[in-house]
Known about the structure:
The protein is α+β, with helices and mostly antiparallel strands. The protein has helices at about 15-30, 75-80, 85; strands spanning about 40-45, 50-55, 60-65, 65-70. β1 and β2 (about 50-55) form a beta hairpin.
Amino acid sequence: MAGNGACCLKSTPHKIEKITMRKKINSILKKVGFHVEEEPDTLFDVVCGMEFPAANAKHQSVHKGDAYYFCSESCKTHFDSDPEKYAGT
Length: 89
Ligand SMILES: [Zn+2]
């Protein structure tokens, strides 16, 4: 992501900022236990703290009715072994 020259990009920095903000809000809402209705473009892995495209969300767990997505099988395994720790509920 480094080295984005703002002047010659077609996508406006404002749009990127907006998406980033929404992702942040969604992840905060999830952390405090809200169910996020909107399907985000990017998902947040609560185990490793990484964000990744929703299209790559092959690993999923459901905890107390909320879906959690993971970047890898190993993150899902960590979550499944101690969901309370990561779900923050
Ligand atoms: Zn992960």
